[in-house]
Design a protein that fits this description.
The structure is a homodimer of 95-residue chains. The first copy, chain A, is 41% helix and 33% strand. The first copy, chain A, is of the alpha+beta class. Chain A has a 3-stranded antiparallel beta sheet with strand order 2-1-3. Chains A, B: It is found in: Cytoplasm.
Amino acid sequence: MARVVVDVMLKPEILDPQGQAVQRALPRLGFEGIADVRQGKRFELEVEGPVDDAALARIREIAETFLANTVIEDFTVRIEADQAADAALAAQAES
Amino acid sequence: MARVVVDVMLKPEILDPQGQAVQRALPRLGFEGIADVRQGKRFELEVEGPVDDAALARIREIAETFLANTVIEDFTVRIEADQAADAALAAQAES
């Protein structure tokens, strides 16, 4: 099973109070040198079957229609190899 | 300025009601073939100065102490090239 990751972040021009709160807290906690923090969401989707262009187009539609609010958020879709699944396959191949 | 991304996800053994809600909604909305959805957080940190091993160790400490709750969450830290900054540098180099 393949894993597809959808990252959803506020657009750069949109104020991010959560990220700002983290960024302002860092110096108080002894961490200097972080100029900016933005906080967003990460979705991991386990896809049944092959992740071909059609599947990716469908996932982009999912992301656009209801994982992200495209008025204020940008999203990216990318395939991530499921290491656990790969390891399981490798173990099967060995046995 | 370099960008470091911290991904924070619930540990696999921890129930993820947000992700489950998304996963259950998908078939109702006409999207089949997504076996599982997990929802987590993504932090983008803009780091001043070079991102060397010391900086990464400090960011791992930030992630561990207060971006993630390591009792229930796993986190990963990785460097991401800031494309906007790269483009700006390239433009400067050209001019």
